[in-house]
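notes to self, project folder thing:

trying the whole complex as one job this time. last attempt i did each chain seperately and stitching them together was a nightmare. four parts in total, labels are on each line so i dont mix them up again. if this works i'll redo the older ones the same way
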Amino acid sequence: MLVVMQATATQADIDRVCTAITEMGFQPLPMPGAQRTTVGLVGNDRRVDGSHIEALPGVSEIIYVSSPFKQVSREWRAENTIVTIAPGVSFGGTDVPVIAGPCSVENEKQILQAAQVVRAAGAVALRGGAFKPRSSPYSFQGLGKEGLELLKLAKAETGLAIVTEAMDDDGAQLCAEYADCIQIGARNMQNYSLLKTVGKLRKPVMLKRGMAATVQELLLSAEYILAEGNDQVILCERGVRTWDPSSRNMFDLNAIPAVQKLSHLPIIADPSHGTGVRDRVPPMARAAVAAGTDGLLIEVHPDPNRALSDGAQSLFPAQFTDLMRELGPIASAIGRRIAAL
Amino acid sequence: MLVVMQATATQADIDRVCTAITEMGFQPLPMPGAQRTTVGLVGNDRRVDGSHIEALPGVSEIIYVSSPFKQVSREWRAENTIVTIAPGVSFGGTDVPVIAGPCSVENEKQILQAAQVVRAAGAVALRGGAFKPRSSPYSFQGLGKEGLELLKLAKAETGLAIVTEAMDDDGAQLCAEYADCIQIGARNMQNYSLLKTVGKLRKPVMLKRGMAATVQELLLSAEYILAEGNDQVILCERGVRTWDPSSRNMFDLNAIPAVQKLSHLPIIADPSHGTGVRDRVPPMARAAVAAGTDGLLIEVHPDPNRALSDGAQSLFPAQFTDLMRELGPIASAIGRRIAAL
Amino acid sequence: MLVVMQATATQADIDRVCTAITEMGFQPLPMPGAQRTTVGLVGNDRRVDGSHIEALPGVSEIIYVSSPFKQVSREWRAENTIVTIAPGVSFGGTDVPVIAGPCSVENEKQILQAAQVVRAAGAVALRGGAFKPRSSPYSFQGLGKEGLELLKLAKAETGLAIVTEAMDDDGAQLCAEYADCIQIGARNMQNYSLLKTVGKLRKPVMLKRGMAATVQELLLSAEYILAEGNDQVILCERGVRTWDPSSRNMFDLNAIPAVQKLSHLPIIADPSHGTGVRDRVPPMARAAVAAGTDGLLIEVHPDPNRALSDGAQSLFPAQFTDLMRELGPIASAIGRRIAAL
Amino acid sequence: MLVVMQATATQADIDRVCTAITEMGFQPLPMPGAQRTTVGLVGNDRRVDGSHIEALPGVSEIIYVSSPFKQVSREWRAENTIVTIAPGVSFGGTDVPVIAGPCSVENEKQILQAAQVVRAAGAVALRGGAFKPRSSPYSFQGLGKEGLELLKLAKAETGLAIVTEAMDDDGAQLCAEYADCIQIGARNMQNYSLLKTVGKLRKPVMLKRGMAATVQELLLSAEYILAEGNDQVILCERGVRTWDPSSRNMFDLNAIPAVQKLSHLPIIADPSHGTGVRDRVPPMARAAVAAGTDGLLIEVHPDPNRALSDGAQSLFPAQFTDLMRELGPIASAIGRRIAAL
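result (full assembly):
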């Protein structure tokens, strides 16, 4: 923790800050500058709350220098964590697995078709929502447990691993039973009760970045899961909210190298939500691979024109097949490989 | 729903869109313009998902014109909803109630002192968190049920109504038992499972705006509560996230008249989170009253320098007393009154 | 400047940073912590660029602690600067002057009517654009010099001071000749050539905050003007850009106390651009006064329905008259007064 | 233009809107819906300002359906515009030219070294600022005309095309004389006087996206240049401002396909400003190519540790050489080629 004094602070002001730091059990270290003095605090500052020092006379600002996360950081573990959600489907290594499928599980025919289509094109896992968080209470909310049964069926038929979203404790228990990886959606990124629940479940978790969450907040939310003993966490960039209405979201590919530098956890990219528009999914999926993503999450629907949700951003089967063909050479160019079952 | 065609769209493109609208069970209404044609859809468009029309050749854009909320809107109910959380503590009328107290309940002495201080200065309700959503799992998480017991004690001693936050279903049940109004925090504004739970509890709910939630999303989240049969909802503006680090949040006072125009629900303002800095709380509290807020939520701590959380934005008792004195004449100037017990 | 080391940094890494700081001519001051070491730099750090230190092994982050502005800061001058644009029209003291008028000067009749209307209601200065920055090159761009002549005429008839915008060097010269205060618009807040030009003109300048400018950037742009020798600068909050489409802009009233703490320059508020909607102008104008604004800038048009620009946010004459009546008691409540000619 | 009525609007309200549209010279077309009526306006709506209709009783909202840009749009010209700034250096075709060099021209040795280094690695144009827009008036402002002379010298020695920034009219004239392409920086994207000036110069212009400019605003600013008769415009995505402090900017690669769909103008990407951190430049440069960028603008300095500006985001020569090697296969994967002299 650093206490930046005002240029006009008196020696008495500085002394008062030093006394306050001493009373907190740390050692103050004043650094006079030509413009102003800064007082450092020597000792472990992880849990120090300096807000009352901010109110002392002559204090301009408090700066915290400790990173607030711990187990998620590369300093805690230097090697990449490899998260394996099913045999052959691992995130964090050289291979880049692609998870694909519809926004929602709608019925047996739709999800089986979707599974076959994405399997044939090279995906290794199937996505599909049984519990859907919708802005409006009047929108389709998912098939619930029946949807999970259908996903299980799709797995049995295709061998694809299953990734599906949980919205509350009961849903998380069910997803843990039926699926290979529990998705926590953007709206629940800071639902700490739910994070603790999935932290206790010992099942791989895919944690999506909140609508306006900083990279640091994403990592802190992951820390909640690791703090409960579950380090099988895959992070996911899915676009964030900005002031530009030209896209549903702004796809922050920068977050990929940023997270990979700060954390040992794998991070994947969701260009479907990241852009919100079908035509931009292929270029952004390619860009994500070139940027070094550890996986992709892509919406594909057997018949997007009849999708119950997110139709406009779902790829047609043929588009997805073409895209998968393009991704291979790009992965090769940076020494990686699109994962295959 | 409006379908805006490209300037280069052919008559065949326009016909194809009209056919698609007809197939959806609505009547198409083409409006030729000098630049381009727009095709309107006549009929109830609340639940229409036009995303597959967006993909037809010659289509430039889809514009939705129906407002997605229903029971929360002024069109549904023209008169203000008055939410009474305790005898004499009503939001949505001429009176402006002030809720004040510490960020967290820390211990008996602290919460009782806080209650006495804010009661003496003119507050009509006490805030204080027993369950605290914290970005880091290693920060103080609140006293839990013990905190609720202490709030009940403070109510018994002072007569103040109690407002406290719930983070999950179990917490919501407990808060309903001990408190007068259940707060849903910014991070849980789109935790739809929790919204449904409090919608069923028939207890007043204070719903805080999410960190980066639009006014429309705030209203849609309230719609979840009303859709379950509970219309005792108070909305709360508490500052939102922007790109300017000069404040912890940007306090969007504009949201007050905006919500009051769109909805019959009361909206209050939280200048403590709205600014994040003690010195700015009084000017922004005054501004909120001048802007027509239906209530205030203010952090006051008997000894902010020793607060376990949010010390830097908590008012000292004397500051709060001064502020309460300033608010009266401002409320009078616009024909309102600071509520008194 | 502070150099935050990684938790895994070796003593050799720390030594290398200390050597680099010494080579830059400053004295390094290492502060070991339980988690990580921070190295302070003792000496004047105003112009230090530590970016190459950031690249040294073991370095996690560089933190700058010097404020980058100088002459605009309260540390440079503790007393408020009073900017007087015409006899009796001063910003920065107890009085709160109101500048009102149409977005653009359209013709003689319109501007004279506007001037009479706002004069009668109590404004002390007239606004009106002769040079208009418009997003589209095909929108009305203003009357140019003819507009300035009409403003001069309006001044002669009403005694109101004149505030009008300049967009380039030639325009600035003309405005200096015809008007009492030169406005620099939001889009030109970082047009440094223009800032230098008006810094040399020795005429009061009203500098509007850029669309997405931080408070610090606003002050740095003002610093450009002061650095040329002109300290007659009035800052103006006019709403900023965010992700919420429910308002044209988000009106950041928080910026008023924030600027007043950091700088001695007066800051006024423009609720017309700050909200973009006529109905929200009165509540936000009241809020600005309650928050302590040093002045108001309000769009009023004799016939908003026929305005060539910004009609939807211009007040009708009667609305403005009502608003002026409401503002007095609010100003009184905080010990100020709406300025009168 | 569409006028959305409130659900509670009466037939008289609708009639009043129809009359107002008729008075404006257009034909109204009411579309009754189950929820509410919408009134369309038939006829050319490019310049229609409906703000006074917004104020009529019963009106909920005005929606504009015409795109406000004209000459920059793909509807105006379907084929890509190819902008050739020097023989062999063309933007908008299959080839992807790379412009590289230091932030500022510092001295002869530095700029010649930089030119040789980037030439050897495969760049086809040299960037380097002679006029520098800096947030603080006390930062290095560039060498001015002397810098232009040095750029000319670098061109003579290496054959690289020259791209350099102009900040005002005089600078634009000089840049036109000395350089091959005039850059308009992010801070001047809405400096309309300067846009008009470069529109008249008939020299290629590279227009950088403003700090918080939407894609539509970027295109409208380009429209200012085309409206003066100059269609040699290259757009540039350089990162935008958001609420996440983890990066200097958020790099909006989504803007590349978005612009390419809306406009015939080429768009290039600047990953140096887009990320602000050296380590993220290579992954984001690769991502930009995979996303289909029409060119790259990259900061490279012969000795970044001693750079006078932007050192932390400038690549070392060896990093740039490595990056150029990686880009080729990625370009090939999507059927393009990194341009070579």
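what i see at first glance: The longest strand of chain B covers residues 27-32.
need to look closer tmrw
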